[in-house]
Design a protein that fits this description.
Strand order of the largest sheet: 2-8-7-6-5-3-4
Strand content: 15-25%
Radius of gyration: 28 Å
CATH class of the largest domain: Alpha Beta
Number of helices: 20
Oligomer: single chain
Length: 471
């Protein structure tokens, strides 16, 4: 019987035989010989594995002919041309979804990126003198106007901002920080690890839930270079707690002539007001007299990835001269997007109207309910007897390590597929092009209209496609 398996294996052509086919020769006009050979080998390997692993009685189900191989090779080559990084539809209701790229950019930011990407730009040249300039000149004045700081600098993300600041201000020296603020950020990176890479020495004070001003003061010695406060933007400690305020740390820093740094994490430029009353603005922090504040560009700011440093000129200017700054610098396209985003904040109302993060956060419940009702009506027509579509009240989240305790009322579209098919529907939506990401809860797929940005038709088409495949 194993001879039958060997017969099937012998029917599988060699790479050279397939390369002689006219159809493959046509493909060679568009793909290199190396790419063609790699893909052909991969397809042939899949067929050999299928023959070797299939039960003998199932071998007859395996089609082995040139047409099948040509189709498979064509599919593989087409896949080569599809970018791995692709647009996605976020139906989760998590506005700043880290795994989905956090903040979508405003139309103004996109236009600025396109213009700068297509042409040469004044990235590092002074137009007035014709001499070499600084890339930071394009956003420094804006950041200073918006925050009240003396100087500003931008690097490629907030972890880089912390690394640069600590390396500049405290390399080889001690940095005092509360134990309750030794946070872990995305990808399992932790503040102590970032600090270690900077060359600064960690000096923990207080307890996880309580740290007093006296704890900081008792730890100060001749090796102390910096007092660091980390805003718990991605978690909260509740209950039996005590925390030293930034104002108290600033006064302590003045007493001992030590700089004070505030890692604000998310960072917001306008008062969140009705959405969150306790989240401090960057300007609020600068007004305390703190020496350095750092925060992210792609969280509550609603811009591109970036680590923004603002504060006293004597410290920011020192960071600009650190060789690390070049290694961590922001690129021209992110800089273009950041400048456009910051300009929107010159009129806070315009920022709320035009920056996608604020657009989504500010959507009212009646608007969300109307959108959900429209979606539910269409989906009922599409799925028919394959499942049940209903509306249910729920909540959205800011996400991205921002406003961790805050949830925003929304109306969800709930789809309960026929028993046992929830995972299949979720996987099919996720593998759609563009992929659609949803929530799954108690055998239901939930779609939140808050983060669906005019993509309803694409969602309907995906549901229709899955319905047709299941019927």
């Amino acid at each position: 019987m194993e001879e039958l398996r060997q017969q099937y294996l012998r029917q599988i052509p060699s790479v050279d035989q397939l390369l002689l086919l006219p159809e493959i020769k046509e493909m060679a006009e568009f793909y290199s010989h190396k790419v063609l050979v790699e893909n052909i080998r991969g397809i042939l390997g899949e067929f050999r594995e299928k023959v070797l692993q299939s039960p003998l009685e199932k071998l007859g189900d395996i089609q082995i002919d040139s047409v099948i191989f040509l189709e498979k090779v064509a599919e593989a080559l087409q896949k080569e041309q599809k970018p791995s990084l692709q647009p996605a539809i976020n139906a989760t209701g998590i506005i700043l979804h880290t795994n989905l790229g956090r903040a979508p950019l405003s139309k103004a930011a996109l236009a600025q990126i396109a213009e700068i990407a297509e042409r040469y730009s004044t990235l590092e040249i002074d137009v007035e003198t014709g001499e070499r300039g600084s890339r930071y000149q394009h956003i420094e004045d804006l950041l200073c106007r918006l925050t009240g700081a003396e100087a500003a600098l931008v690097v490629n993300n907030n972890a880089a901002a912390v690394l640069l600041a600590l390396n500049t201000l405290a390399k080889g020296k001690e940095v005092i920080i509360s134990r309750g603020q030794l946070v872990e950020i995305g990808g399992a990176f932790r503040v102590p690890e970032v600090m270690e890479q900077s060359g600064a020495k960690l000096r923990e004070v207080g307890a996880t839930n309580k740290t007093y001003l006296r704890d900081y003061e008792q730890a100060i010695n001749e090796e102390t270079a910096l007092l660091l406060k980390v805003h718990t933007s991605n978690y909260r400690i509740l209950g039996f707690t005590a925390e030293t305020s930034l104002e108290e740390l600033v006064e302590l820093g003045k007493k001992y002539q030590l700089p004070v740094m505030d890692d604000l994490g998310s960072g917001v430029l306008i008062d969140l007001g009705e959405y969150q009353k306790d989240e401090p603005t960057v300007a609020n922090r600068i007004q305390t007299g703190v020496d350095v504040v750092c925060f992210s560009g792609d969280k509550l700011l609603g811009g591109p990835q970036g680590g923004i440093l603002v504060g006293k000129a004597q410290y920011i200017n020192k960071m600009k001269k650190n060789p690390l700054t070049r290694a961590l610098r922001i690129d021209k396209l992110s800089l273009a997007a950041l400048e456009a985003t910051l300009r929107a904040y010159l009129n806070p109302q315009k920022a709320i109207e035009n920056i996608p993060f604020w657009q989504m956060l500010s959507l009212s419940f009646p608007v969300l309910q109307e959108r959900a009702e429209g979606m539910a009506g269409r989906l009922k027509e599409i799925v028919g007897s394959l499942g049940t579509v209903e509306l249910e009240e729920g909540t959205s989240k800011a996400g991205g390590g921002s406003l961790p305790l805050d949830e925003f009322p929304t109306m969800l579209v709930s789809f309960a597929p026929q028993e046992g098919r929830t995972e299949k529907w979720e996987a099919s939506l996720r593998k759609n092009r563009p992929p659609i990401f949803t929530r799954m809860q108690k055998g239901k797929i939930l779609l939140d209209p808050r983060t669906i940005r005019g993509e309803e038709e694409e969602i309907y088409q995906a549901f229709q496609k899955i319905r047709d495949e299941l019927n």
